[in-house]
Amino acid sequence: MNKLLLLLQVLLLSGVTLFVTSCSVDETDPEPEPAPNNITDIVTNTDRFSSLLAALERTGLTSTIAAGEYTVFAPDNDAFATFLNGAALEDVDIDVLTQLLLNHVVAGTVASTDLSNGYAATLAEESTTMNKISLLVNIDNGVMLNSAVSVVEADITADNGIIHEVDAVIEIPNVVNLAIANSEFTSLVAALTRADLTVNFVDVLTGTGPFTVFAPTNAAFQALLDSNPSWNTLDDIDVATLETVLKYHVVAGANVLSSTLTDGQVVTSFEGSDFTINTANGATITDVNGNIVNIIITDVQGSNGVVHAIDGVILP
After folding, report:
1. How confident is the model at residue 32 (pLDDT cuts 50, 70, 90)?
2. Which of 28, 152, 161, 235 has its CA 20 to 30 A from that of 211?
3. Is the distance from CB of 201 to CB of 215 less than 8 angstroms?
4. What's the whole-model pTM score?
């Protein structure tokens, strides 16, 4: 009898041990791997990005933004509808569309808290140098891009980067657009668009190019006005003088990057006169009158040329 009871106890204990062991195995089973969630996956699975997805598929860029590490400024469907203005996506030249989409992509992961005022390089390229197209970022009142496009939803995180939703398609700027977008160049834009000019600088500088523009800041133009007691505003400068000065700040036929500038380099301007680049003690320009100005921002790249900001007006 005692042997029978002992056998039953052993069997019961074995059953309890098996049950506990079984439960323990179940509780320590590894969690399933999360589903892939790269930038392309998010665009694919978000209804309001269906037009963006169609554009990416048409250009073969879905695989590009699924790999690597990127920040994508993603236009929603309404933004694409406004951009197309009744045309079909298939009507847009595929090479143009490819560069347009790349103009929304920045290498690396840039969260909204990492953004600051200034320029970022997109993956779009200028055709003669392959230099990356510049994107102007301003965070003074929300996040604005090229002074025309707003981030409406930030920090959509992906496995390989981040998405910021924007309310418009970011068109690739030419050198005129670059000047218009930057509030430091309002005086330059006013000079270029003065109604009584005999040269249509906007038409010229929106042409094929390439152009290199040495762009005086607002403070530079104010210093020019202060140099002549008869000049209170840009309108006080006679037309011939203003046109000559503006042409002197443009180099036609070349997208001249800062990396190609050399000390003592003589440059022939669109106006016909030369000026000299100096790099020995920082990048400066010496005009034909011996005036020296500093190059303070370099390589702001547009589709048809590059802009370098200068802190003074050079005079032919």
Report:
1. low
2. 235
3. no
4. 0.87
